[in-house]
Amino acid sequence: MAETQTAPVTGVFVWNELATRDAATAKKLFTKLLGWTAEDMDMGANGTYTVLKNGTQRVGGCWEMKGEQFNDVPVHWLSYVSVADADETVRAAQGLGMGIKVPATDIPEVGRFAILAHPATGVFAILAPKPM
């Protein structure tokens, strides 16, 4: 019998990600303070992405901001909200006057994301995850 795949639940926070200038110290602090583990993934030219885990549960990620494009970007956390269709959500966000910081973009084996912003909402990301 074939497995039934369920669509992702729309409107649920599904991921939290730290953008930092000192990933090594951030990983040390989280592992010592919260007992998390850190699993590094080589992202090629994009550097290293660290998945943070509480036991076997993935709770977030961490990456290091390098390069001039990040000179004026403060260290920050970014929360991701699940959507069914990233492109459709970006179009709807534009129609509502929201800014698009990063257009709908594929993350291999993860899904499609975008980063949105508005003075009333701040900056957040959307993610249309690939079916499991």
Can you describe what's shown?
- There is one protein chain.
- This protein is α+β, with helices and mostly antiparallel strands and 132 residues long.
- The protein has a domain at 1-14 and 80-132: 2,3-Dihydroxybiphenyl 1,2-Dioxygenase, domain 1.
- Helix content is 17%, strand content 46%.
- It has helices at residues 23-34, 86-95, and strands at 13-20, 37-42, 48-54, 57-64, 76-82, 99-107, 111-118, 122-129.
- Strands 2-3-4-1-5-8-7-6 form an eight-stranded mixed sheet.
- It is globular.
- Mean pLDDT is 92; it is low at 1-5.
Helix-strand blueprint:
Elements: E1 13-20, H1 23-34, E2 37-42, E3 48-54, E4 57-64, E5 76-82, H2 86-95, E6 99-107, E7 111-118, E8 122-129
Parallel strand pairs: 1-4, 5-8
Antiparallel strand pairs: 1-5, 2-3, 3-4, 6-7, 7-8
Short synopsis of the structure:
This protein is an alpha+beta fold and 132 residues long. Helices cover 17% and strands 46% of the residues. Strand 7 (111-118) and strand 8 form a beta hairpin.
CATH H-tier superfamily of the domain at 1-14 and 80-132: 2,3-Dihydroxybiphenyl 1,2-Dioxygenase, domain 1
Mean pLDDT: 92
What is the CATH topology classification name of the domain at 1-14 and 80-132? 2,3-Dihydroxybiphenyl 1,2-Dioxygenase, domain 1
Measured as a percent range, the helix fraction is 10-25%
Shape: globular
- N-to-C series of helices and strands: EHEEEEHEEE
* H/I helix tally: 2
Total strands: the figure is: 8
User: Which sheet architecture does the biggest sheet show?
Assistant: 8 strands, mixed
Radius of gyration: 16 Å
Structural class per helix/strand content? Answer: alpha+beta
CATH architecture of the domain at 1-14 and 80-132: Roll
* Main β-sheet, spatial strand arrangement: 2-3-4-1-5-8-7-6
